[in-house]
Design a protein that fits this description.
328 residues; alpha/beta; Isopropylmalate Dehydrogenase; 12 strands; 36% helix
């Protein structure tokens, strides 16, 4: 790959300074350099300093700068970084970094946005951040009503229908309209972003054994099956509702391109078990490309040089691939 393969660089928001985000940015540049041009939006003083840096005023300069150092679009924060100790005073800067990344990608100055992990409690305490996570905040910034969280690796792609809510709240939150919208957005993204003209979608049931004909729950009969039948009538290739405990072994995975699951852990446990380090978070339904490493801030190892950049590297590679596919 060369820089000529990418129209614009990828914007990378800094994430929580007290976590491993600064280390991930440097490690990702050390691995990718000019193969995947990107620029980091944050305070240069928060970086460990183990690699050369190029401080810029214009994101477009990253296409050339990435060959010699980590391109940085500086955003001064209120105070130094203390690894492992999030500070409320950093919250406005973390939020501003995300907002700047969205602005750059929406204005054509970046081809995609890759977000490094945030600490939601620190943002709430320091800036009144009220969103459950990155996904919902990005939907707000983009002005869209509905987005879908996908976790993807080479072995599996999964989409949870309900995301950051308690298990006890899932049955009430799970509606036919929500399930229909999630599956349609997923189908459209598989076509537009992954180049699959007829994606195969597997849909999990909510209950054990997919309800076992109503003996273990009625949602499969009353809610899930009618939605799937309607979407099949529209031409979508859908299997389900399927028992979740038999959907994720190798032979089963070979029969579909993406699995739609009813709640957060039903989707995330399989992919994190199969490919923890290489999983990537992709937001479907946004008017721009957004990816993220599939892990948190890792305060326990921050500042110790132990952070594994594999997921961040995969997130940047996937962002570049999707941005190219959308441009075709």
């Amino acid at each position: 790959m060369t820089t000529s393969d990418t129209v614009m660089p990828i914007a990378v928001s800094c994430g929580e300074p007290a976590g491993i985000g600064p280390e991930l940015a440097e490690a990702a540049w050390s691995e990718l350099r000019a193969d995947v041009p990107f620029f980091w939006i944050g305070d240069p003083a928060h970086l460990p300093g183990g690699v050369p840096h190029v401080v810029m005023d214009d994101p477009r300069d990253a296409l050339e700068a990435c060959a010699t150092g980590l391109p940085i679009l500086p955003m001064p924060f209120n105070g130094p970084r203390v690894p492992g100790e999030p500070q409320k005073r950093h919250a406005p800067g973390v939020i501003a970094s995300i907002e700047s990344g969205v602005d750059f990608v929406q204005n054509g100055l970046a081809s995609a946005l890759c977000t490094l992990p945030i600490h939601k409690q620190a943002l709430a305490d320091g800036a009144g951040f009220s969103f459950p996570g990155h996904t919902e905040f990005l939907a707000h910034l983009a002005g869209v009503d509905d987005v879908v969280m996908m976790l993807a690796s080479e072995q599996l792609r999964v989409v949870p229908v309900t995301i950051h809510i308690a298990i006890a709240d899932v049955p009430e939150a799970l509606t036919g309209d929500l399930l229909t919208r999630r599956i349609r957005i997923t189908h459209d993204a598989m076509v537009r972003q992954f180049g699959l003209s007829h994606p195969r979608i597997a849909v999990a049931g909510l209950n054990p054994h997919a309800g076992e004909g109503g003996r273990m729950g009625q949602e499969e009969i009353s809610l899930i099956t009618p939605v799937l039948d309607q979407l099949r009538d529209e031409g979508l290739q859908i299997a389900g509702p399927l028992p979740a405990d038999t959907m994720f072994h190798a032979a089963a995975r070979s029969r579909y391109d993406v699995a739609v699951c009813m709640y957060h852990d039903q989707a995330l446990i399989p992919i994190k078990t199969l490919d923890f380090d290489r999983g990537v978070n992709i937001t479907l339904g946004l008017p721009f490309v957004r990816t993220s490493p599939d892990h948190g801030t890792a305060f326990d190892i921050a500042g110790q040089g132990l952070a594994n950049p594999t997921s961040t590297i995969q997130a940047l590679l996937r962002a570049q691939d999707i941005a190219r596919a959308r441009a075709i």
